[in-house]
Protein: Cro/Cl family transcriptional regulator
Organism: Arthrobacter hankyongi
Amino acid sequence: MTKTRDAALPAGQARSQLLADIGRDHFLNGRSKVQIAGDYGLSRFQVANFIQEALDRGIVRISIHLPDAEADASLAAALGITRVVTVGTGTGTASREDLARATADAIVRTVAPGDTVGISWSRTLQATIRQLPAMPTCAFVQLSGAIATQGDAEGPRLLAALQARAVWPLWAPLVVNDAVALRSSPEIQSTLEHAHGLDVAVIAVGRWKEGLSTVWDRVPPASRSAASRAGAVAEISGRLLDAQGQAVVSPVENMIVAATLEQMAGARHTIAVSHGAERAAAVLAAVRGGLVDTLVCDLSLHEALADLIAKDSPAPAERDAGGHVP
């Protein structure tokens, strides 16, 4: 779409379309007024006025949907996990900031004094860090390298804003040409060693498919195809799973700077966040792999998971007393 960058603001149908586009960017895509102002060549105050006008004219309508606690409990039971937290509106979608707030709340509810918490990188988890209160008795481990997204230089500083007893950052990109050598460096090795014996792990689940994984575009096409042929369905910090929750061996494995799936699944409790109906198969794979105890999702993913389970899909793997696959 061509953004508006002139002094003459549109009128009529063109103005209505502009209001709809700005409303969609702000409320559905989670973009701030400052970001939208840069996109459209407007001031932040003009954007605020356009958003209010869109609301006043009914072009944008906000409905407040209180997720059904009974439906969340039912889905959790069907998945064989501890808890589902659904964040969403009548449209089924949730903004990144809303998901981040819910994930931060899940962390606060789960973590006990003295715990060691591992957090993977994703754009949603990066936003989650900013929502966490001071946790002076806990230690935090960064479970994966980061990917700097356009207009966002905070990725490599995932844990910088945390106030905690100890913080072990991972000063590396998530995807590199030779991760094996980088993982053996003393600094990286030291941080990843702290991922053993986690009390709580916090991860984001992506789908191994174009547009549904931040790692997908960072690896060569031949490596992507090899992983797909090997059955990759889910992606968690670059670690790949097949539909049954088993680790996928592919060339991608040697390009990832992150904790292992075993380290993540070994936590006492794992909190996973994901969104969008297209990621339902990936989340189910993560559940089968013992990588989900609490799931934070939007309404569209919740409904897609419920439909997927209802279609006679195989039951998730049995879990041990700690809630994980043996």
Q: What stands out?
A: The mean pLDDT is 87. The first strand starts at residue 83 and ends at 87. The first helix runs from residue 12 to 28.
